[in-house]
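Duplicate of #3305? Posting structure anyway:
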């Protein structure tokens, strides 16, 4: 199993059902040294507002979120769900857990 840290849309049970056809169970955790940045993404019916994790110059900045256990197949589904404005990277969370997180695609 892989670990996936979510700070936004993927925490929604409705979105989880849409992507995975199941509801995930997770554990609260924190991503240190990152902050959230507003992001507008063009969707089918216009622009939509989202957030994206970006590295912070302040190591004490924190993003609160949830860590989910997912399969490699599930990760591939999320890769398709996330727009090309995001990229998946591995990070170490406050708990010491190594997890995948979607950050700004630069």
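Output from current build:
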């Amino acid at each position: 199993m892989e670990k996936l840290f979510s700070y936004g849309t993927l925490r929604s049970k409705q979105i989880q059902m849409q992507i995975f056809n199941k509801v995930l169970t997770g554990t609260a955790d924190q991503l240190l040294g990152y902050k959230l940045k507003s992001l507008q993404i063009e969707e089918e019916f216009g622009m939509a507002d989202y957030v994206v994790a970006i590295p912070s110059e302040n190591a004490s900045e924190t993003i609160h979120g949830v860590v989910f256990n997912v399969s490699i197949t599930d990760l591939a589904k999320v890769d398709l769900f996330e727009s090309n404005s995001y990229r998946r990277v591995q990070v170490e969370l406050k708990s010491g857990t190594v997890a995948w997180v979607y950050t700004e695609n630069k």
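Confirmed duplicate; merging threads. The helical segments are 13-20, 72-81. Strands lie at 2-6, 26-32, 34-43, 46-55, 62-70, 86-92, 98-104.
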